[in-house]
Amino acid sequence: MIVIHHLLVSQSERIIWLMEELGLPYDLRSYPREPTMAAPPIFRALHPLGQAPVIEDGDVVLAETLAIMTYILELYGHGRLRVVAGASGFADYVYWFHYSIGGLMPRAMQHMGAARTQAADEDPRAAAQRERFRWHLAMIDARVARHEWLAGDVFTAADIACHFPFGTMSQFATLDLSDYPGIRGWLGRIGARPAFQRAMRAAGHARDPAAHHLDTQ
Amino acid sequence: MIVIHHLLVSQSERIIWLMEELGLPYDLRSYPREPTMAAPPIFRALHPLGQAPVIEDGDVVLAETLAIMTYILELYGHGRLRVVAGASGFADYVYWFHYSIGGLMPRAMQHMGAARTQAADEDPRAAAQRERFRWHLAMIDARVARHEWLAGDVFTAADIACHFPFGTMSQFATLDLSDYPGIRGWLGRIGARPAFQRAMRAAGHARDPAAHHLDTQ
């Protein structure tokens, strides 16, 4: 059985969610953050970079969110939660799955950092960064306004991968989605999924971590 | 034929390199950066985020480096340059391929940013970031000191994906690899590959963009 080493209030909750969506059993080990917010030493003992998530599957010890998701999907997913090569929507699935970490996370981290340091409105570099982040939000919004899920008609691992900045991460940064009804609709559809609800409870959340966006709907 | 929209001196050169390694034809369109270093408007016309690389394959317009690499590998790679699910080394391949963007690039960008602002040596936050970057370099170094390539005995797309911070990107930031002979050896093996040499010439480089690390060997 796959062991998930889960850092509480972190992106490792995506792995729990993936397992719940696939209906696969897992052995969940949850750890709180250090007072510094860093991951506890167990993560450094498991993997050289000391980051969450980490899974163990027999002799395999694997870190890196999309690597873990790809590993689980390809070995245990039986084609579910992804669009296979050649099928309609393959390019969309591949794009949104990889965009989660390659494009979205760096921008969301930048946004969170800027919100923390309260970069002045008149700072041209901060203004340019805000404008770029709006390009991202507008792109996602347009996509899930026209399609039920990011890859199209079917819920996939791309939705799991892209959710984090709008859920748990957005609890720590001002992220106003009032201009993005498409994204709020998508978050609502995700919040209604039983596997998501089970996963968030297992990950340590008392309620949907994106609920604050939906309350304003 | 796949069209590669290539921004000069950028990570889009990885797509050219992938095509050269696979021996696939491509229609290369190269564009210089704007005076602000931004990508020119053609990229915003091609894709909502205005970033390079972007490819066109018939009706498909696709951005995001790893998405493009995955798309090409799965549709046109015939199993080459990757380790398929279930084969020995699969987890290693999946890790290093995704680590390139998920783990390495953000740290390398942070390192480049810190080098630019010349964060004071005594700044504890900057010191912690430098220490974390050393964890990354040590991990990569240990891997390619023991194995010829990141995924093991066979050169894969993981090597292509992880090269950029040590090649073109490292020309713009102080990156001292004197303590990392494993990485320098790996860069030397890459530099000797004819497909890499053809790709770097096509991408606009007069010589191997990692050569400055090798000169100090």
Structural notes for this entry:
2 copies of one chain form a homodimer. Chain A is of the alpha+beta class. Helices cover 52% and strands 9% of the residues of chain A. Chain A has 9 helices and 4 strands. In chain A, strands 2-1-3-4 form a 4-stranded mixed sheet, covered by helices on one side. In chain A, a hairpin with a 2-residue loop joins strand 3 and strand 4 (60-63). The radius of gyration of chain A is 17 Å and the shape is globular. The model of chain A has no long low-confidence stretch (mean pLDDT 93). The interface between A and B is large, with 36 and 36 residues.
What tags apply to this protein structure?
homodimer, 217 residues, alpha+beta, 4-stranded mixed beta sheet, 9 helices, 4 strands, 52% helix, globular
Topology readout:
2 copies of one chain form a homodimer.
Chain A: E1 2-7, H1 13-22, E2 26-31, H2 41-46, E3 54-57, E4 60-63, H3 65-76, H4 90-117, H5 124-146, H6 157-163, H7 181-191, H8 194-203, H9 211-215
Parallel strand pairs in A: 1-2
Antiparallel strand pairs in A: 1-3, 3-4
Helix pairs in contact in A: 1-3, 1-8, 4-5, 4-6, 5-7
Number of strands of chain A: 4
> What fraction of the residues of chain A are assigned to beta strands by DSSP?
5-15%
Helix content of chain A: 40-55%
- In the predicted model, the low-confidence regions of chain A spanning at least 5 consecutive residues are none
Give the mean pLDDT of chain A.
93
